[in-house]
Amino acid sequence: MNIQQSLDSLPIGVFFLAFAIISLITYESGYRLGRWWQAHTPDEKEGPTAMIVGSLLGLLGFLLAITMGMASDRFDTRRGLVLAEANSVGTTYLRAGYLPEPASGRSQDLLREYVPLRIASSDQAEVRTQLARSVEIHNQLWSIAEELARSAPESEVLALYIESLNETIDLHETRMTSGLYARVPATVVFLLLLGSTLTLGMIGYNAGLTGRRGPVTAVALVVVLGAVTTLIVDLDRPREGLLTVSQQPLIDLQEQITAGARSIVAQP
Questions:
Q1: In the predicted model, what is the mean pLDDT of residues 201-217?
Q2: What is d(CA 110, CA 144) in angstroms, rounded to the nearest whole number?
Q3: pTM of the predicted structure, to 2 decimals
Q4: What residues have CB less than 8 Å from 243, skipping those under 6 apart?
């Protein structure tokens, strides 16, 4: 299990609380180490500790900005793919209406079943089931299109339908890859957590050397740093958290095609 899988197993609130507690312990440990060192080496100068702490804070800020950019870009990509897939499936459904029967009805029935499967779930077992059934529907839809292509290879309407169907299948793979694998690199996340811990420890150590500690300042730093780090981790989560990709485009599409099917059945 890598670091991201370990972090995904923690609720966002638990992650923030754990980060804050570990950070405060690290700060306090650094402070006590600084006091101990100052007490045992009273004749030695403090050295460039304050300058090193300033450098670490600058590097940490740079790493936070880089990681935030990577996480937000991936979040925006996942959000855009939901809209793109809803548009593609909707176009495929409409173009399926121009196919000859019974291929038209079969294709639209499969697409009506397909849309709810593309609405993301936080249950991993349910996600695996949805992905497996989605692939089965792809194969069934493509088999129908192949049969029609053999009987009418020069049909322009069929060509348009196959084009949109192919795009729908491609977007499924793209969205699955984006959601499951396009994460912030584990090395970057590890460096961020390690850098945060080291920086807070050095801040506490510097406070111990000088004998001046500001508890309110330390707590404020831990809270702000924890909030930003938690936000980054939350943005990088594909399925759950406080910030989730809206599935509304697919929900709207499901309602539209379901309402359309009901109106057709209701016609005398």
A1: 82
A2: 11
A3: 0.79
A4: 75, 231, 234, 235
Q: Which helix (H) or strand (E) holds 234?
A: helix 215-235
Provide, rounded to the nearest whole percent, the portion of the chain with pLDDT above 70. Answer: 92
pLDDT at residue 267, as a whole number: 42
Which pair of tokens denotes residue 204?
């506490």
Mean pLDDT calculated for residue range 229-237? 88
Burial class (CB in 10 A: 0-12, 13-18, 19+), 239: middle
Whole-number pLDDT of residue 2? 59
Amino acid present at 245:
V
Tell which residue, 21, 6, 1, has the closest CA to residue 226: 21
In angstroms, the CA 101 to CA 97 distance is 9
Q: What tokens were used for 134?
A: 């989605």
- Per the CB < 8 A criterion, the answer to whether 203 and 39 are in contact is no
How many other β-carbons are positioned within 10 Å of the β-carbon of residue 203? 25
Give the residue-averaged pLDDT of 129-155: 89
| DSSP state at residue 267 | -
Q: What is the DSSP string of 14-45?
A: HHHHHHHHHHHHHHHHHHHHHHHHHHH-TTS-
Distances in Å between the Cα of 160 and the Cα atoms of 97, 99, 106 are: 12, 11, 18
Tokens 């690199």, located at residue: 185
* H or E stretch covering 128: helix 124-151
Per-residue pLDDT for 193 more than 50? yes
d(CA 53, CA 43): 22
First to last CA, the chain: 58
| Peptide bond preceding 102 in cis form (omega within 30 of 0) | yes
CA of residue 220 relative to chain centroid, distance: 28
